[in-house]
Amino acid sequence: MKERIIPINPNQIDMAVIQLAADYIVKGEIVAFPTDTLYGIGCDPFNIKAIEKMFSLKSRSKQKPINLLIESENQLHEITEDLPTITQLLIEDFWPGALTLIFKKKKTIPSILTSNLPSIGIRMPNNPIILELIRKVKRPLAVTSANISGKPNTTNAKQVYENFRKEIPLILDGGETSAGKESTIIDLTVDPPKILREGILRLEEIRETLPYIEKISD
Q1: Is residue 36 part of a domain?
Q2: Is residue 65 part of a domain?
Q3: I need a surface site. Which of 11, 164, 201, 212 has the fewest CB within 10 A?
Q4: Which DSSP symbol is given to 94?
């Protein structure tokens, strides 16, 4: 397979390029793209073969869940159950943005994505390229960082190519990602909520919305 790297301007998106990427995903392929944090690779979350290939490409343990990216609150309700009342506060303050929230998943979400856990991590990214791609596919995307597990994160298309050359059909080159760091993760399946990973969003920022949130786990 020959990888194609196609430049795409986040301020003037070529919808023909988005359609091409969506077509690959619908066919069960894996595509790479920029987000507001890092570059990611993504696929159809309901295509088991594609998910297995993504684990293999990254040399990622299947004991490490893969998160979903969404483009609207409607998609959130389609894939989760029992949303806590504080969800809306966090959405209003931090979405779209660098905050991943862990919810109880619906049974329709493949267990391979969640390492057989009853929960799923979900984020609405603040990047027009990936948001348009999700809209075009018309479903959330299973997304993980575009690096080999344990290796440095990727912040541009060249680094993605060096990791996965000839292994995926398309890389959307939206330039260097501005953040260069992972999202912060909050587990909303526990009470009180707990920060599992402090990324771009700092504990102090989150406590302005949720003063009682627990400290980051060790």
Answers
A1: yes
A2: yes
A3: 11
A4: H
**Would 53 be classed as within a structural domain?**
yes
pLDDT at 216: 73
d(CA 215, CA 77): 28
Residue 212 in any domain: the answer is: no
> Which long-range contacts does 211-214 make (Cβ < 8 Å, 24+ apart)?
213/186
Residue showing tokens 């309901």: 46
Compute φ and ψ for 128, nearest 5 degrees: -65, -25
Mean pLDDT of the 137-153 span: 96
106's tokens: 């619906």
Containing structural domain, residue 43: 4-207
At 147-194, the pLDDT tens digits run 999 999 999 999 999 999 889 999 999 999 987 789 999 999 999 999
DSSP 173-213: E----SS-SPPEEEE-SSSS-EEEE--SS-HHHHHTT-TTP
pLDDT band at 106 (very low <50, low <70, confident <90, very high): very high
- Note the pTM of the prediction, 2 decimals: 0.95
